[in-house]
Design brief:
Order of helices and strands: EEEEEEEEEEEEEEEEEEEEEEE
Shape: globular
Distance between the termini: 37 Å
Radius of gyration: 16 Å
Number of strands: 23
Structural class: mainly beta
Largest sheet: 8 strands, parallel
Strand content: 35-45%
Oligomer: single chain
């Protein structure tokens, strides 16, 4: 956990391995309002550049700003399953990945309480990406929102409140919870066309 008035000048890792076949799993990163992330810094719940898995990692960003990219779990060769990214009123100028790897399933991304993302948002980014979830509740995404593989199964987009994105793709299920939304408001405004 990083909080108070700390300034971070490097990347943030909950867990990291560069060992072939290594694992970076079951880590938690929490960065709270008041913390400064300098430059284009990356935040990883788990990173395994040559490893076999980055599973069940969690990242919580609460009211902070970063110009970098955020990963629940990222691996070049193995599985990225069951990771989570929670943006609570946070601003990310890069992209957001719940999980990225050779396969990425059952990852979750939550964008809540005026969270803003300039880049794209992925539940799971892999050739095999199933059962991922993206939850929007008062979020603004300048880029696209992508659940998982275009030919995947079980990828869910859940929408509450008023939100916007460029376009959506890779979802096989979409749900809208209208509680608290005033008549005439648009719950998901899409301002692009590709993939929608």
């Amino acid at each position: 956990t990083v909080d108070g008035t700390a300034t971070v000048s490097g990347n943030v890792y909950g867990g990291m391995t560069t060992v072939a076949g290594g694992k970076a799993s079951n880590n938690v990163v929490t960065i709270n309002e008041g913390v400064t992330l300098n430059d284009s810094r990356y935040v990883y719940g788990g990173s395994a550049t040559s490893g076999s898995s980055v599973d069940n990692n969690k990242v919580y960003l609460n009211g902070i700003r970063t110009s970098g990219t955020v990963y629940g779990g990222s691996t070049g060769f193995g599985t990225a399953n069951g990771n989570e990214v929670h943006l609570n009123g946070a601003t990310v100028r890069g992209a957001v990945f719940g999980g990225e790897g050779a396969s990425a399933s059952k990852n979750k991304v939550y964008l809540l309480n005026d969270a803003q993302v300039t880049g794209d948002v992925y539940g799971g980014n892999a050739a095999s990406a199933n059962d991922n979830e993206v939850h929007l509740n008062g979020a603004t995404v300048t880029g696209a929102v992508i659940g998982g593989a275009i030919d995947g199964t079980g990828n869910l987009l859940s929408v509450k409140g008023v939100n916007s994105a460029k376009w959506i793709a890779g979802f096989q299920k979409v749900s809208f919870d209208t509680a608290g939304v005033a008549a005439g408001e648009t719950m998901l405004n899409l301002n692009g066309s590709a993939g929608t």
